[in-house]
Design goal:
It is a single chain. By secondary structure, the protein is an alpha+beta fold. 26% of the residues lie in helices and 13% in strands. It has one domain. It is built from four helices and five strands. Strands 1-4-5 form a three-stranded antiparallel β-sheet, with no helix packed on it. Strands 2-3 form a two-stranded antiparallel sheet.
Length: 95
């Protein structure tokens, strides 16, 4: 079984409202990043994004989160995905 394709996450992500996207995996591993709430939608409902760690694992259903990394511009569950995404090269392998 090829674990590299199963445990990989996107190097970049499309973002809304001009957020900065970190495309280098090494940058997200060494810089300081903090979670933030996804801004509310125009209709007043809470904003949501797909968690890039949970969603990257093949065979798992897509999971949404109301938190994201403002610097990376990606949706992440606060626990455990935010820490895994910013400390592990292939974070989906640890879920």
């Amino acid at each position: 079984m090829d674990s590299s394709s199963e445990c990989s996450i996107p190097q970049s992500s499309s973002t809304q409202s001009g957020l900065v996207v970190v495309t280098s995996p090494s940058a997200r591993l060494v810089e300081r990043h903090f979670p933030d709430k996804v801004p509310s939608r125009q209709n007043g409902k809470p904003g949501q994004r797909n968690c890039v760690v949970c969603s990257s694992k093949s065979g798992r259903p897509r999971k949404t989160s109301t938190y994201y990394c403002k610097i990376c511009g990606v949706g992440l569950c606060v626990v455990p995905c935010f820490e895994l995404y910013h400390t592990k090269t292939n974070p989906s392998c640890y879920i």
